[in-house]
Amino acid sequence: MRVKRFAAAVALPVAAMMLIAGCGGSSSDSSGGSSDPNAAISIQGTQPENPLVPANTNEEGGSIPLDVMFTGLVSYDTDTSDLKMEIAESITTTDAQHYDIKLKDGYTFHDGTPVDAKSFVDAWNWAAYAPNAALNASFFEQVKGYQDVNPTPPAGSTDAPAPTAKTMSGLTVVSPTEIKVELVAPYSPFKQKLGYHVFAPLPQSFYADPVAFGRNPVGNGPFKFVAWNDNTDIKITRWDDYKGEKPQVKDVTIKLYQSSEAAYADLVSGNLDFQQLLPPSALAGEKYQSDLMDRTLDKDAPRLTTVSLPMYDQRFANADLRKAISMSINREQIAKVIFNDTYVPSTSFSSPAITGYEADTCGEACTYDPAKAKDLLAKAGGFSGPLTLTYNSDGGHKDWSEAVCNSIKSSIGIDCVATPTPTFSVLRQSINAKQMSGLFRSAWSYDFPNLENGLSPLYSTTGSANDSKYSNPEFDAALLKAAAISDPAESNKAFIEAEKMLAADLPAIPLWSVTQKAGYSERLSNAKLSYTLELDLTQVRVNS
Q1: Share of the chain above pLDDT 90, in %
Q2: Are residues 323 and 376 in contact, defined by beta-carbon separation less than 8 angstroms?
Q3: Tens digit of pLDDT for each residue in 66-92?
Q4: What pLDDT is attached to residue 25?
Q5: What residue ranges in 136-232 does DSSP mark as E strands?
Q6: What is the secondary structure of 422-453 as a DSSP string?
Q7: Which of 233, 196, 200, 234 lies closest to 109 in space, CA to CA?
Q8: Angle at 192 between CA 303 and CA 307, to 5 degrees
Q9: What dihedral angle (degrees, nearest 10) is formed by the CA atoms of 468, 469, 470, 472?
Q10: This prediction's pTM
């Protein structure tokens, strides 16, 4: 637990009491500097794809506000990524299939209603129920009864039958402070998985109008919602009745930028306090060092950048074509020129920051070999271009997207065109609507620190973020087999074996992993990147 000191605690005990309640005064950070607990800060964000509902948000624009407005059963330690109990008092199991969850008493939502077992179970059932079309529904597929609320379409069909139930039989509210969960089979990552915001509780007010709720959400976390101005900002403020660790800043404005470069200009000029990922233009020639001095953060990111292929487009049906495209990309050169060697060329489908990672699972398919790529393209019968690579303009992806296209063009002669969409939100809507007609930018930040999370959501047939719409029953079975193994080390080995199967199919092309480089203003101290690579708003302070 973080140690707090108060600058005026000895001379003015009343002021100290006010400070504890978040009502005024100043405090000291760990380095002895004084800070203002009622200060306001601004951080970079992007327009969320959807209304702010945990079960229907799987992109960073919405995740940034959701992750501090809602507190779930567990979280991940900012420094170690270890699991921390939050609303959960304990989570126990003897067989990785039956879990007993006991809750701490006394937590409430921002509207004063209780956070209890029912508020979790009702939220989970709503998220899983197919007619609600929540993007993250498949995160509950291990729970017994999921198939009754979200049936899988019959083989050869895309139309699922109607649900036969509205709630999952594997969830039982034992008491206001106890939940029993039965899974369809042993699933060892379940406890870690519970830290993702899709498992957050919801107040009863949500169910009257989920869309309206998403525009004015009521959470239970350390910050509460104030306002959302489309494409301009989202405002949140500290909730002083929060029972968990209280933030040391009060008001936070999440500025919704159209470009990463614009956010960086604001950071350098003092009009923005935090940028989560510095743009390539700042990394080139290490420009950020002269701009920001020592006000940067580095963290090996549990994140992987890929370009995905629409497997529903018959032009990409040939595996040799997909492999040719992958082998035509000079990852090392792009990482050096565009990212100043802060990005590492990928040789696998997982992030090196995740325990159990193994290099080279992508094998030959992720090596740069123009001659072999040309042979594979010829074997595939060529490609009728142009080939597009679609990216979002508000995230600093223009330079590398153009570089990837240039590499493809120069290596194998396919006319590749880097094609922008205005925002990440628009890109995600097109992807989810299966409207992509070429390569498209895709990246994955792990929702929880387990290899399974970088594989099942992206590449299993029913995965919530299966953007390519890839389906391989043998791969699905291998994932289930790995997840059923209780021993973490043996489970990781099995996930790696499943991962190697992706190299033959290449539904996505791994590009690079990231050492995340963030920047912050002169006003901030104790700035840290959370497990999800967001600014830890419970620990950051503003110098006074």
Answers
A1: 74
A2: yes
A3: 999 999 999 999 988 889 999 999 999
A4: 39
A5: 171-175, 178-182, 223-229
A6: S-HHHHHHHHHTT---SEEEEEEE-SSSSGGG
A7: 200
A8: 25
A9: 170
A10: 0.78
